[in-house]
Design goal:
mainly alpha, 45% helix
Length: 73
Amino acid sequence: MPTHHAAVPPRRGPGRPKLGVVAREVTLLPRHWEWLAGQAGGASMALRRLVEQASREASGADGARGASPGDEA
């Protein structure tokens, strides 16, 4: 009896592919890992929150800088 493997989508690894999550290596000091371990949601969630916060703050600062006359990139 033939099997139809083409109908079954390939299995993906852990993570949230709909969000486009990419696993990378991060090197931190032991005290940073200890702090991250104590954060709600774990290290990954804490790092995502920190990156989002810094990104929002930087985009606000970039917008203010971009308003200056003669300031071209």
